[in-house]
Structures are given as structure tokens and as C-alpha cells.
Amino acid sequence: MEEKIRKIIEEKINPVLGEHSGGAVLTDYRDGIVTVRLTGACSGCPSAQMTTEDIVKEVLMEEIPQLVDVKLDTSVSDDLIQLARRLMNGER
Q: What is the set of domains in the chain, with CATH numbers?
């Protein structure tokens, strides 16, 4: 199921979000609930929750009717944490 979700995100959702220099990645799938993190310009956008509801959730639920919900992962990515650590240590 996770592979199917990733494929839909890559083929149907990311091209739409890419028009705004963004994207989405699957961060979790459990008990019919998909959790995604928005990336690029979409990650810090004030409309991130609306984007998740109006685009990501709509497409995923249409493609996979047995899904229960799609939620937005608002946690900080490991890549961003590592970048912040390097910057704090004076690395580039």
C-alpha cells in the first residue's frame, strides 16, 4: 500500500505542487491513515493545511477509496535539523 501511495504522490500530486516549487512525501501509513510532509516552498506556506486537504487528500482518497484520512506532518525534517546543526557549528 505504501508503494501505491508513493506512486500516486509522485505521479499525480507532486506535478501540481511542483507548479508552486513544492512537493509532498509520505511519512507514515497506519490503519488507513496517510501522513504526508509538504516539501519545498509548500512546507512553509501558510496554506499548507489547505493544500493538504484540497489537493493531497482529495487525490489520494479518490485513487484509494479505502483510506480513512490524510494528515499533514508538521514535524521538522531530519535534513533541516542536520543543516541547522552544521550552521550552528560554523560549517557550510
A: 2-88 (3.30.300.130)
Tens digit of each residue's pLDDT (9 = 90 or more) over 69-92: 999 998 776 767 777 888 888 876
How do residues 32-66 score in pLDDT, each as one tens digit?
999 999 988 888 788 888 989 999 999 999 999 99
Residues with Cβ within 8 Å of residue 49, at least 6 apart in sequence: 72
Which SS3 state, helix, strand or coil, does residue 71 take? Answer: strand
Contacts of 6-11 with CB under 8 Å at 24 or more apart are 8/59, 8/60, 8/63, 8/64, 9/36, 9/56, 9/60
Taking the C-alpha atoms of residue 35 and residue 51, their distance in angstroms, rounded to an integer, is: 13
Give pTM, 2 decimals. 0.81
Q: DSSP state, 77?
A: P
| Close Cβ partners of 46 (under 8 Å, ≥ 6 residues apart) | none
